[in-house]
């Protein structure tokens, strides 16, 4: 079943989203060590804006896989097959990164230190890129309810929820930033609807875009909105104002529109062909693509140890080149990890 889920266009989209996420983190790490608004910083900022969609896309992929199951998930089954494995993945990788960081700083490896790292990871003190597992675990905790809704709701009801998510998590916060209004601000703070609908909207959107067929005109409109969304993300801070945090937010309208457009593009235009060998290759990489994401920071640490960063040469080239190298290196680690008996599928 896993192979079927990762074959075809969903698997291709998943691999592309993970690669874009690597570029995103590499660009962010470069910005942290260069002067703000310098030429290099601007190039890295553009790369960041071009790849912000990758995080929402991962939630869309998780939703299209998990919600597409034929049978409605029981609560106990969901906790055992989705939420608990995700939590164990968080604790394992969080502890491993903590131990490695400790060793690189000259510390010693002790059982007490390993146990302390495991406890810290379980309590939420994890490496920066693992934050994405927290909202995922939250979604898995309510997954049975979401799956029951998705399996029985009409297309209009699904669109209604997606519209609410887009409105409260993206549009209204943006509107409130430029048009301060005490009533609107108070309502947003009290309702806290965006906290509920943000990533859940992406989770459902991935399933919707895979489950329902879209007509040619709506498809074309989604592409137009996606291009507009990318322009807003990149140009919004300088042309309209409000700061990068507002336009680069993972729930910002521009980022959301770009993620939806790219998902649609992969389904209807860039999907993997029916050639069996090509589908198998994509399926093999897709199955461990999130493992590649989890592993890749070790390679960033290794590169940094040898003095190689996004600023080691022209950032316009360094970001894609280093991302490709890190992706391939991470694949060589994630692939054998995925083959470990029993534990492999829970680590990648």
Could you explain how this protein is built, in words?
With 348 residues, this protein is an all-alpha fold. It is 78% helix and 0% strand. The chain contains 18 helices and no strands. The chain has helices at 2-6, 8-31, 39-51, 54-66, 75-104, 111-122, 133-141, 143-152, 155-178, 182-191, 193-211, 216-240, 244-248, 253-268, 276-287, 289-305, 315-338, 344-347. Helix 5 packs antiparallel against helix 7. It is globular and about 55 Å long.
Task: For this entry, give a set of tags.
348 residues; disordered N terminus; single chain; mainly alpha
Per the principal axes of the C-alpha atoms, what is the gross shape?
globular
C-alpha Rg, in Å? 20 Å
Bin the strand percentage.
Answer: under 5%
Look at the structure and give the mean pLDDT. 85
Helix content: over 70%
Measured between the Cα atoms of the first and last residue, the distance is 16 Å
Compressed to H and E, one letter per element, the order equals HHHHHHHHHHHHHHHHHH
The largest sheet, given as strand count, sense and whether it forms a barrel, is:
none
- Distinct helical segment count: 18
Weakly predicted, low-confidence segments: 1-5
Overall number of strands? 0
* Class by SSE composition: mainly alpha
What is shown here, in short?
This protein has 348 residues and is mostly helical. 78% of the residues lie in helices and 0% in strands. The protein has helices at residues 2-6, 8-31, 39-51, 54-66, 75-104, 111-122, 133-141, 143-152, 155-178, 182-191, 193-211, 216-240, 244-248, 253-268, 276-287, 289-305, 315-338, 344-347.
